[in-house]
Amino acid sequence: xxxxxxxxxxxxxxxxxxxxxxxxxxxxxxxxxxxxxxxxxxxxxxxxxxxxxxxxxxxxxxxxxxxxxxxxxxxxxxxxxxxxxxxxxxxxxxxxxxxxxxxxxxxxxxxxxxxxxxxxxxxxxxxxxxxxxxxxxxxxxxxxxxxxxxxxxxxxxxxxxxxxxxxxxxxxxxxxxxxxxxxxxxxxxxxxxxxxxxxxxxxxxxxxxxxxxxxxxxxxxxxxxxxxxxxxxxxxxxxxxxxxxxxxxxxx
Amino acid sequence: xxxxxxxxxxxxxxxxxxxxxxxxxxxxxxxxxxxxxxxxxxxxxxxxxxxxxxxxxxxxxxxxxxxxxxxxxxxxxxxxxxxxxxxxxxxxxxxxxxxxxxxxxxxxxxxxxxxxxxxxxxxxxxxxxxxxxxxxxxxxxxxxxxxxxxxxxxxxxxxxxxxxxxxxxxxxxxxxxxxxxxxxxxxxxxxxxxxxxxxxxxxxxxxxxxxxx
Lengths: 252, 213
Prior knowledge:
The complex is a heterodimer of chains A (252) and B (213). Chain A contains eleven helices and twelve strands. Chain A has 252 residues and is an alpha/beta fold. Chain A has a single domain (5-245), classed as Aldolase class I (TIM Barrel), CATH 3.20.20.70. Chain A is globular, with a radius of gyration of 16 Å. The two termini of chain A are 15 Å apart. Chain B has one domain (6-212): 3-Layer(aba) Sandwich (Rossmann fold), CATH 3.40.50.880. Helices cover 22% and strands 29% of the residues of chain B. Chain B contains five helices and 13 strands. The longest helix of chain B is centred in the last third of the chain and has 14 residues, at 199-212. The A-B interface holds A 1-3, 5, 40, 45, 70-71, 74-76, 93-96, 98, 118-124, 167-168, 196-198, 219, 221-222, 251 and B 15, 17-18, 21-22, 25, 50-52, 116, 118-127, 151, 153-157, 173-175, 194, 196-200, 202-203.
């Protein structure tokens, strides 16, 4: 059985790691390299880098940050934000990343997911979904880091992304993001039971119990956390220890 | 180990850069071999790989690596295959059709079918690896210093089956499906997981390998 992966999420704007609430009100929290090294030492299972302004400016600016990270950090690195061509993916992998997370451009051109999966393998392509609750049991997909409506139903879109060839799904709840009130477990659960690829829950973790719930109630294969690690509310090992106490497999 | 010339085979389908950085970290000076003649002077070869078997094998063949690679092995050069690169070492793969591998080791690459429905495919993430039996120990292998139960990072949908037990160094279990996750036979080695992405344990395995050969 696989261990549940704990993935610190580094949202990047320019040269800084930032953190907001509902993907807005962004504040600088630190230096990407210092934070990434610290998380690697703490036992992170993977790191997720999102260029928060890339879609807006039409390109991903994380190459230098990833290049630097991959000299010292020997766990998988996933990079998202503004990816719109096979060449973009090639450059990011060359910089030392292992996977790319694609949101906005997948919505614009769904065949891009298939093309990317065929070229680099599904294991490399993470379908990224930013969703906001629009009614009871219904969530809409947003793009451009939560700025643009799409009219797409999040669960249906998740199913489609899996069929198109994505190897994993990163599901971020805009409602919960930055609130520390817990993951959107109902959304995560619906998606996890609709697709046969691993789902990474993102947005809302405020304590280890939230992570436990994302796994036991929503069947997430991995969890992305930002606030609780960035603001040093918990160390990674503390979260893993709580999971372990709930008989959830983790890498200790 | 510094006398050894280490080369990473570049056939367009591997994530060479992480591997290169990991090898540098453990004291090697790897070069990137983009043409078949680049591997002739190497003592140690790495065959990385991500993606589909057929496409990878086709690229390896199209770029003329297959025969030089086999010639290197027959003159005693050490080879370390990672993930898809390990799968290439076997006879056949059934991924998207039926493809011939390098045939350096007995066994076939088949779809991973976990019995446990909770275990999704691809198998992505950290999983443990164990010795073949309680009696086996890893003292004279590339897993020297490890005791079993350590975790490494996997990302794959296919795995080697019907491998001769004498070539299996470690096994991994995923949802009831067991497969060889570390293999060794003569100078040919491989891991289904990514040592370059498996933290300090992975670096230890790469270091062991470089000291071992």
